[in-house]
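Listing S7. Sequence submitted for prediction.
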Amino acid sequence: MAAPVEFGMRGYSPGLGLGDFDGDGVLDVAIGGYYEDAIIVFLNVGNAHLHQEAILAAGSGPTDLTISDFDGDGKPDIAGTNRNGNTVSVFRNRSSIGSLGFGTKIDIEAALTPYGLSSSDFDGDGKPDLVVQTTGADHSRYSETCPPILLLPSPRNWTSCSMRVPRGESPLET
């Protein structure tokens, strides 16, 4: 068994996502750098060798990540929660083989203290949606009957939080 390979990250790095960001057929790694307020992308150059290639300025305290093709161009994009900034940041992949690049960050309001994140086609329209888990403690913005889960459908035109999932109801019925 090969020895573990360590990478220098300062402190707490809870988010991790895998995707072929540069289109070379090999999975690359994205990590949420909580104290760096950034998402750090490492390109896999083969033989378990990763090189830090990009630092994406996220919001305050990035925690969880998810990777999906949010804009429908066939490339894996990155979304991450910003625990201290109460937002989700989406970075559209603009890379090509041999050249890593991401578009301007899109920040989406996501209630108080978002920390969990997942993507899938929850509403059946063929486009990936985001589900964000929050502490749900900001009662000035959301009712007490709203659980700490937000569904953000089809992010191609995201500008702000667009749906809350009420307790006991399916997101498809909302």
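Caption to Listing S7: primary sequence and predicted structure tokens for the chain studied. Residues 138-147, 156-174 have pLDDT under 50 and may be disordered. The longest strand covers residues 50-57.
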